[in-house]
Amino acid sequence: MHQIQLNDQYLIHKTIFETQGLTIYKGLSLKDDSEIFYNIHCIRYKKLLKYYLSVKDQLKETLPLTDSFVINGDLYLVFKSGEVGVPLSHHSLSTLEKKHLLLALLAKQALDAKLPNFIRWQLLQPEHLWVDNNRILHTDIHLKLLNPELFDDFNSIQNRIAELIPAVFEAPDEDLALKQFSEKCQAAVYRTDFAMLSDYKYLMGLSVEQKEPWLYEKLYALYLKLKENKKRIVIVGLLLLFGYLGFKQLGASNAILIQPYQKT
């Protein structure tokens, strides 16, 4: 097979996805001594190109984006390949191991919540989730969608996770906890990633009690929602109010804790 050099930096190994406005190559860096593969996205569709330029800094902060450049008006995004070990759905992984790996995935999604949901949705493709020999989860990034307006809400993320469960687990309907969690995701009952993560841990028996998300997380979510509407005065007022109520509640809890033990 004839291999092509790109920008004097990468050796194209093969084309793994192609459409009119986007091509994804598997390639090697000419600067690496070891054989490390990269997923090289060539974005030609102008609307998508402008979108990725606007979120490039967010991608660098959260994803293994190692390089980006423009050639003849096309944007290239280079991600380190995460195709290592075995797929998350592989039969060699036990159900318990998969549950812990799904927990790690949900935790990572919560920490990466600053990424647009359009991108997060694409990171949940079951065929691109891999597990290495140390049982560490990796994502082999393939950003194939062309319309940034698709799946750009949290309900879509929950629905995607509901679709992920039967693709990863064998007979998930026979596991009551998995079935309940999947049904909740399908119904999009969660308001935040942290609420979904907390409930998953509880349902799977990975935490001893069901807890509401922290007050800080709720306040921050409210702040972001109101910030989008630029209601700054309302933001300050509500934060002060909730801060006062939280402080008052904390004080009441501490008062109960320091009361001497009384026999009944």
Short structural summary:
The protein is of the alpha+beta class and 264 residues long. It is built from eight helices and nine strands.
How would you sum up the global shape?
globular
The class by helix and strand makeup works out as alpha+beta
What is the residue-averaged pLDDT? 83
So how many helices?
A: 8
Percent in strands: 15-25%
Low-confidence stretches: 208-218, 227-231, 249-264
> Strands of the largest sheet, in order across it?
1-2-3-4-6-5
Helix content: 40-55%
The description of the largest β-sheet is: 6 strands, antiparallel
Distance between the termini: 84 Å
The ordered H/E elements are EEEEHEEEHHEEHHHHH
Q: C-alpha Rg, in Å?
A: 22 Å
Strand tally, please? Answer: 9
